[in-house]
Structure formats: structure tokens, C-alpha cells
Design brief:
This protein is an alpha/beta fold. Helix content is about 25%, strand content about 25%. It contains 11 helices and 18 strands. The protein has helices spanning about 40-45, 95, 135, 140-155, 170-180, 195-200, 215-220, 235-245, 265-270, 285-295, 310-320, and strands at about 1-5, 15, 25-35, 55, 60-70, 80-85, 85-90, 110, 115-120, 125, 160-165, 180-190, 205, 225-230, 250-255, 275-280, 305, 325-330. Strands 3, 5, 6, 9, 10, 17 and 18 form a 7-stranded mixed sheet that branches. Helix 4 packs across helix 5 (about 170-180).
């Protein structure tokens, strides 16, 4: 099969022919219809912070059709349309069995979605509703991240919300915050490139790039935000969130910052008695609800480009720089 392989830092992904995957006892193999490019794919192949091992087939936001099942798999069959999580857990431990595979201590590996075929875990995969197209279903993974963060925030009805960032994770967070009881939602980002998408997902205000975020968000929301979602994952953003959040407010960290952050002053949180909640991807409840909600929602508007392997390596590298793209998908068969 064709796959995009991470061979060297500073070099484009290598489009290669590699062996087709075969399922272990608790695994499925799917023919990948779409796989989205995540900021994690970019950051963990950049040479800064945590990195994927060389030789890894990247890609974890995917959906497709089951073509093989392991000997212990009874909940999927060949031909099922599915969306697996971003990792392959053991499928047998207590955490897997209770629907929280992200805490599995026996992960069997990543999903390797930048390929024509990839693996999923039988207890970390959802079947797609009939009204969800395979071309949209790879959005389930990033949008479920937003749902998990919104659930952990424990939003009070009509809470004032600030979302820092306007990438796919932020957009999914806006979508769920609107549907789970938020009041006004302000969005702060470094540019207005995705302002229209943010408003389509449910934001009420897109702040002026470069402005005083704390002052402008408090002004537009009618007071400091009671909940701040950090969805950027770069040094200094948690410090900004602490500066913005209301006293006794909550900050939910959704961005993956894997380098030291010297921009946060703990005393700023102490004087506000702020709560900082880190969010670890999602569980099966988040995945299943996202799959059920995707069809008929505005979420597919996030997909701004779909490319085949002929353009994929160059497109992937281009995404390392500021771009108007929101979510770029690989179609490994086009």
C-alpha cells in the first residue's frame, strides 16, 4: 500500500510502498477514505519538543471501511463504515472495557492514517450513522477533543466563554460550548482567517487580532470569561488565559505544548483562585456523541482542501506556515 512516512526532521514526508497492516486479535483494519492533518502531526515532526519516531506513518484523524477483523472482534464486520480513535489500545484491560481507552497502559501503537489501510482498536472505534459521509467522518476525532474539553469545563448555563485559537480543535470547542449551554462566546486568534468559520460554529464575537485580549473579551462578554479554552498549544498561551479568566473561573487546556512554558506566572492563578483543567483527548462517550451529531451540522465546513498522495507531502509542509486552511484531508485513493 501507499503511505506517507516520517523519515527525517526537516524533510518532507516520504511517499512509499509499505506492507499492508494485518489485524491483531483485538484490532480491525480499515480501508482509509480520509485522514485529516492535525497540528500534532506537524509539531511532532518539526524537531521541536516531543517527536514521532523516525519511520512512523503519521495520521490519526481518519475514517474508512472495515476490510479485516481480528480473532477476538465481534462488534465489527467487513464492510462497516467506521471512525477509529487516534491510537490502538489493547482492547482488553479495565480502562478499555469501561470506555476510556485513552488510559490504557498497553497501547499497541498509533493508527497510521496517512496510508491506504490502517488499524483501529475494536473498543476504540465507532460505527458511522447513515447520515455521515465518509468524506466528513475523519472530523470526528478533532471534534471529539473539543467535546471532552467542554464536558470537563462543567459549563454553567449562559457562562461567559473565551476560546483562544481558531484552528479545528478550537472550532469544535465552540460548536460544543454553544450546544452545551454557553452564553456569549468570544474567540481570540492571531488573524481573522477563520473568523467566518468560528461564527458559523456558534461564536458571538471574534476579537481584533493584536488587541488586549483580557480587556476586549471582558468588554464584549459583559465581564471576564468564566471559562477559557486554550486551544493553541504554544508557550505563553496559558499565561494569557490566566490573565483573561474571571476570579474563580476555569481554564481548560486543549493545546499540546510539549516545550517549557515560561510565560505563566502561578501567582496570577493563585490570586484568582482559578482552576486549570487539562484535557486528555476523549473517551468513547465523546466519540459516539460526535459521530451521532456530525451529520447535518455545520462541522463539515471546516474541511477546506482534500488532496491525494501526489500533492500530500508538499501540502503537509505548506501547513507549517500560517495558512487560510482549516482542515486538510488526505484521500489516499485519489
Amino acid at each position: 500500500m501507499k503511505a506517507a512516512v516520517f523519515r527525517a526532521i526537516g524533510q518532507p514526508l516520504s511517499i512509499e510502498t509499505v506492507p499492508d497492516p494485518t489485524p491483531g486479535p483485538t484490532e480491525i483494519v480499515l480501508k482509509v477514505a480520509r485522514c485529516g492533518v492535525c497540528a500534532t502531526d506537524l509539531s511532532m515532526s518539526s524537531g521541536q519538543g516531543e517527536q514521532w519516531p523516525l519511520g512512523t506513518v503519521l495520521g490519526h484523524e481518519m475514517a474508512g471501511e472495515v476490510v479485516a477483523v481480528g480473532s477476538a472482534v465481534v462488534n465489527f464486520k467487513i464492510g462497516d463504515r467506521v471512525a477509529p480513535m487516534s491510537f490502538v489500545p489493547c482492547g482488553a484491560c479495565p480502562d478499555c472495557l469501561k470506555g476510556e481507552p485513552m488510559w490504557c497502559a498497553g497501547w499497541l501503537g498509533g493508527s497510521g492514517g496517512f496510508a491506504q489501510y490502517a488499524k483501529g482498536g475494536h473498543l476504540a472505534t465507532v460505527k458511522l450513522p447513515d447520515n455521515v459521509a465518509l468524506s466528513d467522518a475523519a472530523l470526528i476525532e478533532p471534534v471529539a477533543v473539543g467535546l471532552h474539553g467542554v464536558r470537563l469545563a462543567e459549563l454553567k448555563p449562559n457562562a461567559r466563554v473565551l476560546v483562544i485559537g481558531a484552528g479545528p480543535i478550537a472550532l469544535g470547542t465552540i460548536f460544543w460550548a454553544r450546544r452545551l449551554g454557553a452564553g456569549p462566546i468570544a474567540v481570540a486568534a492571531s488573524s481573522r482567517r477563520r473568523a467566518d468559520l468560528a461564527m458559523k460554529m456558534g461564536a458571538t464575537t471574534f476579537l481584533t487580532p493584536g488587541a488586549d485580549v483580557a480587556a476586549q473579551s471582558a468588554d464584549t462578554l459583559g465581564g471576564p470569561p468564566e471559562v477559557v479554552f486554550e486551544a493553541v498549544g504554544k508557550p505563553g498561551i496559558m499565561g494569557l488565559a490566566l490573565n483573561c479568566v474571571a476570579r474563580r473561573g476555569t481554564i481548560v487546556s486543549l493545546g499540546l505544548c510539549s516545550v517549557p512554558d515560561e510565560g505563566m506566572v502561578p501567582a496570577a492563578g493563585l490570586f484568582k483562585e482559578a482552576r486549570i483543567q487539562f484535557s486528555m483527548v476523549y473517551d468513547m462517550r465523546d466519540y459516539a456523541l460526535t459521530a451521532q451529531t456530525l451529520g447535518g451540522s455545520p462541522l463539515p465546513a471546516m474541511v477546506t482542501d482534500t488532496v491525494g498522495f501526489d500533492r500530500f507531502a508538499a501540502t503537509f509542509e505548506a501547513l507549517r506556515k500560517p495558512s487560510r486552511q482549516a482542515k486538510v484531508m488526505l484521500d489516499p485513493w485519489s
